[in-house]
Amino acid sequence: MTDSDLSPDDISPGDLAAANRRQVLYWRLLGRIFDPDEQPTLESASMAVVDDLGLPAMLLDPTVSVDTVVQRFPQLADELRGLLADTEADPADEAAGPHRPGEAEVRRAALVSKLLLNVFATGAGPVSAGQLARWQSDAGWFEQALGGEPGELRRQGTGLGPTLAGIEGDLVNRMHLREVLADPALARQLTPSMSLIEQLLRDKANLSGVALANAKSLIRRFVDEVAQVLRTQVEQTTVGAIDRSVPPKRVFRNLDLDRTIWKNLPNWSPEDERLYVDRLYYRQTARKTTPSRLIVVVDQSGSMVDSMVNCTILASIFAGLPKVDVHLIAYDTRALDLTPWVHDPFEVLLRTNLGGGNDGPVAMAMARPKIVEPKNTVMVWISDFYEFDRSQPLFDGIEAVHRSGVRFIPVGSVSSSGQQSVNPWFRQRLKDLGTPVISGHIRKLVFELKSFLT
């Protein structure tokens, strides 16, 4: 039940005052977001509320970062973490009747207002490296307030993730990136993110010297961070079935103690009160593996930047698995065989040329000769499949590959959120072919690949 559901008779004077103070803070928040100019009445009223709560006045200053507030007042850090996390209502609280705002709710409103104002009121005009770094830090505190880790929501792309990523992308677009990269001190303030990496990859041909070196450093840092997350997902995904034809290794860590005791129960001696063991039993741990070839074809047009970054990293991880031969092809209107660098996603990304149109048949012409044993080959095709006048030729090629026995996996995108926009014409025909476009979520693709390759 909200404040509006309470009748005046239900609210004590103290509760009514608390509700009014909380409303003042939120009115100020809305006013500030839509009009950055100070509104004296709301500002002075909010200042009085914050002062009465024993909170610092800088909480109301949108030019002060959350980091600065926390550094000056460390006790607020624990209050901010989990501040906006969803919690189930306590049945005892519900039974007690309608919720009445008190001082704790007013305090929460003041802290929430700080987070929302710093993250969502980004203004207009040019952005400096310091402003971007401050926003990224504030966004990290906002993500912690929602119960996550800094950067987690933007990487996952769920809930408010796409909105935060969009704001970050706008800030990056408004920043004079080349000038920032040319200054090592400013470049060090940047925190790598998908929005920033996209801009670096698009502009890398125009960078040189110190600016190019700083750009490469940021790309490598981002690649390493994402690789660590994806590698963990690959390791956690279910692997191949146990191979019963391979005898178990007779080592202590494989000892099946429960089965050993059960099988030797007839040897129990009541007189000695001992169990005499004739035979030890061991768990089978060998898993079935098939020498497999993985061919990854990824659309590197402008709409597929997130997929290109994640895909090259994922391909490098699978290339490190035993008995998996990975080939990587990127295409727009031309196809580029990136297989020689598949073990190093950083080098792959430096060789890509994001943007341009689509010509899937050109990529298919490069990919098909790589198929040697169709039954032991999986082809992952990552694209939005908007081929326009090349749609039918590409579908004909896909159908021929599928009919040959290759496991064909069409993917709408490879993003953390799984959000995808796929050409409806292709979506229906691939479904009719028996190879429906799978969700673009990374975890889904990891599962599909490991179930085939291990």
Structural summary, described in words:
- The protein is built from 20 helices and seven strands.
- Helix content is 50%, strand content 7%.
- The two termini are 53 Å apart.
- It has 454 residues and is of the alpha/beta class.
- 33% of the residues are buried.
- The chain has a five-stranded mixed β-sheet, with helices on both faces.
- Mean pLDDT is 80; it is low at 1-6 and 87-100.
Itemize the secondary structure elements and their pairings.
Elements: H1 13-34, H2 40-53, H3 66-72, H4 76-80, H5 91-95, H6 103-120, H7 129-145, H8 152-156, H9 161-173, H10 177-181, H11 184-187, H12 194-203, H13 209-236, H14 257-263, E1 268-269, E2 274-275, E3 292-299, H15 305-319, E4 324-331, E5 335-337, H16 345-351, H17 360-367, E6 377-382, H18 391-403, E7 407-411, H19 424-433, H20 442-453
Parallel strand pairs: 3-4, 3-6, 6-7
Antiparallel strand pairs: 1-2, 4-5
Helix pairs in contact: 1-2, 1-6, 6-7, 7-9, 9-12, 12-13, 13-15, 15-16, 17-18, 18-19
